[in-house]
């Protein structure tokens, strides 16, 4: 399933953004905080704040999303597309046990689905189905959110800075889970400011600066021979610079 974004604009925050994520592609969207990355992702999912409106075109396998009804978007979220946010506690109900939350996508989209224990085992969390979110570490909660996102084997997974708040070891574990859990046909849009993460996960990269895509290409080409001055500044400030 292909995601096509054409001339997407959101107020003055995202301007004339166009890109494509093909079936099975792993694409990184990089840039500093405030560059418009998250607003781009929220536009795709139809989750922009009420005061903001997206214009242009966002199509998933040819279906226009910007003009889709909330009912249709709700059907697509979790069924065909899913998102992993930076802070898992915002995606988890503190009063609901983990097992019930993990199977919620099945109840909403296509019951009865896989058992919670099976989904939690797949992300390395056996025996946690009866736990509450506050009883888990940050890395464990992010695994739960990932299990929820992958529950219905979405065609498109969007990850918005999913490892930013985690230590290096846990970050590596989450990235490995994302890479190994996605089916070969599923597409990934991975949003981050961390170039090392992009280098380990993505085949292709889009560089965003002040609401615009300023550079794009294969991850190898962009990170080894950046053409735009902003990309060069990002690279100079990253740990990758030391290894070039």
UniProtKB/TrEMBL annotation:
Single GO MF descriptor: ATP binding
Keyword check for Metal-binding: no
Domain ABC transporter residue range list: 3-235
SMART domains named in the record: AAA
Family (UniProt): Belongs to the ABC transporter superfamily.
Membrane-topology descriptor: Peripheral membrane protein
InterPro entries: AAA+_ATPase, ABC_Ni/Peptide_Import, ABC_transporter-like_ATP-bd, ABC_transporter-like_CS, P-loop_NTPase
Predominant subcellular localization, coarse grouping: membrane
Subcellular location: Cell membrane
UniProt keyword annotations, A-Z: ATP-binding, Cell membrane, Membrane, Nucleotide-binding, Transport
Name the record gives this protein: ABC transporter ATP-binding protein
A Pfam family: ABC_tran
Record keyword Zinc present: no
